[in-house]
Amino acid sequence: MWLEILRGWRDGLAGAMPDTQVSVGADAQVPECRAIQLLRGPGDDSRFKRENVLEQRFWIECWAYDKAAPEKAYADLDAIEQAVRDYLTGCSAAAVVPGWDLIVTLEGVEPDGDQFRPSVGSRMTVLVKGRKQRNTN
To answer: Model pTM?
Structure first.
């Protein structure tokens, strides 16, 4: 289930942001381009198996890069973060995972502390809660 959500977000964000590399998962290398990396966080798999209920956290890493102008990288990072917020706010849960009622909550954004200059990044924490729709037939 969690992988379906990540793939749905990847496809939606890539369509909304064609100038940004969007991927499920991440490798050890910090991107040197506009990038969004979608990662699975902690969740409660036992409830899902018993009740068709989902409670899963995800991390969305946003990255920007500008070797010559750090302020431009910050502005770019801000624009990427806002585009992700807009996407999560406007996307239909049914379009991401049909047959589920999902509530998506952005819990916070943490900067990378400029540890990877000239790349700058942030990690958004997103909580998804959901329940499988009942058959109405």
So the answer is: 0.88
